[in-house]
Design a protein that fits this description.
Elements: E1 3-8, H1 20-24, H2 31-38, E2 44-48, H3 56-61, E3 65-70, H4 73-76, E4 84-86, E5 98-103, H5 113-126, E6 127-136, E7 147-151, E8 154-164, E9 168-177, E10 180-189, H6 193-203, E11 205-210, E12 217-222
Parallel strand pairs: 2-3, 2-5, 3-4, 5-6
Antiparallel strand pairs: 1-10, 6-12, 7-8, 8-9, 9-10, 11-12
Helix pairs in contact: 5-6
């Protein structure tokens, strides 16, 4: 995951510094439409790292069956429209499989090879034969600073970016909405195509294709 090194701002935070109130007021930005176009109607979906249900709810509205998973009890408590499970992703082992396993929010960019492999093995364990694993990844060039982005009365500042060995990056993200502001320090690792393919294979998956030209959305399938 984007490993949080701590967070500040109003309201409760998860152990990695994610601000729950910020997640609650952040809408979908087309992710639900992209996912819906890539999968079959009425798919069963295991959503890993659901947060407060920002994408869960639109997927349910589109007719999919979603089981939402997050390690934060404060996050999953806000998802009341479907089945939820409070668990770390790496430890999750259900006795059922799904048409689609979804892992967004750049969780695959965790800056720890062993932890990333644990996440991918969870994906592989829960996808049915012939199903799909959809991953959202950070790619080189996405995390640049200092950068200021303003959209829909929201302001995001990316600052204190550090380039670290092994294609790792650290940065501070500061979100401002109205008179409220949240900051989080993150640590991520960009993956080359070869690195991604190798780790998918080690987990029991194979890279099928990219859903977007910029390669931020990946479709993998069980071997």
């Amino acid at each position: 995951m984007r490993v949080g090194q701590g967070g500040t701002g109003p309201g409760p935070h998860t152990p990695d510094g994610s601000a729950i109130e910020l997640y609650e007021v952040t809408p979908a930005h087309g992710e639900d439409e992209l996912i819906n176009a890539a999968i079959e109607p009425g798919s069963s979906i295991l959503e890993l790292g659901c947060g407060t249900g920002r994408i869960t709810r639109p997927l349910l509205t589109l007719g999919h069956q979603v089981v939402a998973v997050d390690e934060s009890p404060d996050m999953v408590a806000r998802v009341t429209e479907t089945e939820t499970i409070c668990s770390t992703i790496g430890d999750l082992r259900l006795d059922r499989r799904f048409d689609v396993v979804l892992m967004m929010s750049y969780l695959i960019n965790v800056a720890d090879d062993e932890e990333r492999l644990r996440l991918l093995r969870t994906c592989a364990h829960h996808v049915r034969p012939g199903g799909a694993v959809l991953l959202q990844q950070q790619v080189p060039g996405m995390l640049r600073g200092p950068t200021v982005m303003v959209n829909d009365h929201r302001r995001l500042v990316v600052s204190d970016v550090e380039e670290l060995p092994g294609n790792r990056q650290a940065a501070t993200l500061t979100h401002t909405i109205g008179d409220r502001s949240w900051s989080q320090r993150i640590l991520t690792q960009n993956l080359s195509d070869d690195q991604l393919s190798a780790q998918l294979i080690e987990a029991g998956l194979t890279l099928a294709d990219y859903l977007t030209p910029d390669k931020t959305w990946v479709r993998a399938q069980p071997i």
